[in-house]
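Our consortium's second objective concerns turning raw sequence data into structural hypotheses that experimental partners can test. To show how far this objective has progressed, the report includes one record in full. It was chosen at random from the queue rather than selected for favorable results. The single chain below, 200 residues long, was entered without modification.
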Amino acid sequence: ILAELQKIDSEIYGLRTELETHPEMQKLADQEFDRKKASLKAAEEEHKSLQVKQKGMEVELGSKEDKIAKHQAQLYSLKTNKEYQAMEFEIKALKADKSLLEEEILKFFDSIEAAKIKVQKEKELLSVEEKKHKEELAVLEKRAAEIRTDIQVHDEKRKFFIPSIDPKILPQYEKLLKNREGLAIAPIRNNSCGGCNIGL
């Protein structure tokens, strides 16, 4: 009877051990999915940062254009040749700066477009990963439900054997079962314990 009970208890211990791993497996799955979400967030932040920089350059470009227009309007009101030449020199410098800024803005258009494409790809990847993640969690939950059902079935079987065991032996068995991780009795094989291999 004890041998049969041990078989049931070994099954229960194995099932409970598997069930205890599920929260950690779920946590790892969640962490992996969070990493993938972080990848999308980083791509979105990079895209936004580039857009902000471009906007700043466009504001600066507008400011230089205003200064050029203002200086060109002032050219006709200058009285000396020296003042005229100084103003022309300043206008040329502003136009050179404006030209450089325009080139930078054009380069930023390419960078922003590349960042936008990257964001789109990350969104598509995340959509696939989210589906996988949900499926993985569903499999874990389904298995956990199966384990709980199996434990209940084994517990019912266990109740059938308990009344047949000597009340003096049962507490010893239960104590060993708890202290030896689900193994209270083991067969003797070749003069050795089948549980720990110690010679007897």
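The partners drew two points from this record. The helical segments are 2-75, 81-161, 169-179. Strands lie at 188-189, 192-193. Both points have been shared with the crystallography group to help prioritize constructs.
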